[in-house]
Design a protein that fits this description.
Layout (H helix, E strand, L loop, with lengths): L1 H4 L2 H16 L1 H21 L1 H18 L5 H10 L4 E2 L6 E2 L2 E9 L2 E7 L6 H6 L1 H8 L3 E8 L2 E7 L25 E6 L4 E4 L6 E4 L8 H9 L1 H5 L3 E7 L15 E4 L5 E4 L4 E4 L1 H23 L5 E2 L5 E6 L3 H4 L4 H17 L5 E7 L15 E5 L4 H8 L21 E5 L6 E6 L4 H11 L12 E2 L3
Parallel strand pairs: 9-16, 9-17, 10-11, 10-15, 15-16
Antiparallel strand pairs: 1-2, 3-4, 4-6, 5-6, 7-8, 7-19, 12-13, 14-20, 17-18, 18-19
Helix pairs in contact: 2-3, 3-4, 10-12
Length: 456
């Protein structure tokens, strides 16, 4: 039965033996060496696909037979009182390990078949002991199906040091709107996200490091902002505490501390909340751009000083979509939905930050195409942001410590629903001042301003 569950232990030596007898040891060795060389070539030629496809499988096999090998697994569960004594035979029944997956270097997802008399609560009651026995920093135990549990374990912190902020490119041509630098991934690679043609939703509790994901995109686009090839509209419902230092960078700006303003809605000026006026103006410019593209017969938008790439940043979306007056909430949700569904092809993007991503708080949540979860206050928030089952696959954003882990979170990649742990670069006040000094928009765009193609 054991060999039937692990056919590789029988099939691999049998295949090697048959190859040696039929083809000879030289041919067999050559095939093995060629396979190794092909794997190394794949890793060097295209590390991204190797990391996504091959690395998790190799890592899972290694950890299955080192970290969770039979006797070690049995001993761990025995010490945690997670075994069952069969009263009829006196046999000690151990929950069976069905599968080990290691999607990232610091996350293991273990599937376990429990014994009769056990439940998910049996394991949860011993959760702290099990995490300690397995050497995990964080653990999540969920029911996968009747008598089958999913145990997600997070080991260590790959971000022991604070990560510096993104570099400010020297020239607009060096800015890649398809790969905005934000920090590092747990693989040690640079963490980038596409912004052109995308909308970002960033969720995180107070002190989770959302500010790092506000200033890094601005630094990555700095030269485009300076040359007015990109324009930033900022709405700060928190009175400007976070954003006032970067005020010169913003084309349009409003906070909750501002007085009511007038907005021309086409039927005469109307007095509105200043933050709502910024939203309306952003929407109106989008409509004008759409009309211009239609008249020119263009299907692809090209950023230039005449037609800049426009980004709307909302520092705390919940204040507008749930905690404002009924009329404001209704208008915000309606206009945001219009921008999120129509703005991508016209070169209009939205980056919104929120503490509580529930559907009644952010009704337009599903219209955001890129989502990042920093430390959250509830386990349910993780799946709300990253998609159903994200927490079971290792995105334990609710388990991130409150101190020393600012800017650490999870995101899902464009090629996989598997969460990846990331950390955003930290911008000090001096870094923000540097950004303002180097990238404050000029009074007039350069006469020789180039254009920068952006895919629709």
């Amino acid at each position: 039965m054991w060999l039937a569950r692990h056919p590789g232990f029988l099939a691999t030596p049998a295949a090697v033996t048959a190859s040696v007898l039929e083809l000879g040891p030289v041919t067999t060795g050559s095939l093995a060496a060629s396979t190794l060389v092909a794997g190394l070539g794949w890793y060097r030629a295209h590390p991204e696909s190797f990391t996504r496809i091959a690395s998790p499988r190799l890592r899972s096999a290694r950890r299955r037979w080192t970290r969770y090998i039979g006797q070690s697994w049995r001993s761990t569960l025995d010490f945690c009182d997670l075994t069952v004594d069969d009263r009829r035979t006196g046999e000690v029944l151990v929950p069976r390990l069905l599968k080990v997956a290691s999607p990232t270097p610091s996350i293991d997802v273990v599937t376990v078949a429990i014994r009769k008399g056990q439940s998910v609560e049996t394991f949860r009651n011993a959760q702290a002991e099990l995490a300690s026995a397995l050497g995990a920093d964080a653990i999540s135990i969920e029911k996968a199906k009747p008598r089958v549990l999913t145990v997600t374990l997070v080991f260590g912190n790959p971000f022991e040091d604070v990560i510096p902020p993104a570099d400010i490119p020297g020239d607009p041509s060096e800015v890649d709107l398809a790969a905005i630098e934000l920090g590092d991934t747990e693989y040690g690679a640079v963490w980038t996200e596409p912004l052109a043609g995308q909308h970002w939703l960033i969720s995180g509790g107070t002190g989770s490091g959302k500010g790092s994901l506000l200033w890094n995109p601005l630094r990555a686009m700095g030269p485009m902002i300076r040359d007015r090839v990109a324009r930033i509209s900022m709405i700060d419902p928190k009175g400007g505490m976070e954003t006032e230092r970067g005020r010169p960078l913003f084309f349009d700006y409003a906070t909750s501390a501002d007085d009511e303003t007038e907005y021309d809605n086409g039927d005469g000026d109307e007095v509105v909340d200043p933050m709502l006026a910024v939203l309306f103006r952003f929407r109106d410019r989008m409509r004008e751009r759409q009309e211009q593209l239609r008249e020119d017969g263009l299907r692809k938008f090209t950023a230039s000083a005449g037609t800049p790439f426009e980004v709307l940043m909302i520092d705390e979306l919940m204040m507008l979509t749930a905690l404002s007056g009924r009329r404001t909430v209704s208008e915000v949700n309606r206009v945001l939905a219009e921008i999120l569904t129509q703005g991508r092809a016209a070169g209009y993007a939205v980056i919104a930050y929120v503490q509580e991503p529930a559907k009644d708080i952010v009704p337009v949540r599903d219209l955001f195409t890129r989502r990042i979860s920093l430390r959250t206050g509830a386990a349910s928030f993780v799946d709300m942001v990253l998609g159903e089952g994200a927490r079971d696959r290792g995105a334990l954003a609710d388990e991130i410590p409150e101190t020393g882990c600012e800017g650490i979170g999870y995101r899902t990649s464009e090629t996989s629903r598997q969460p990846i742990r990331v950390r955003a670069g930290y911008s000090t006040d001096d870094d923000i001042d540097e950004l303002v000094r180097l990238c404050t928009p000029a009074d007039e765009p350069p006469a020789d301003s180039n254009v920068y193609p952006i895919a629709a």
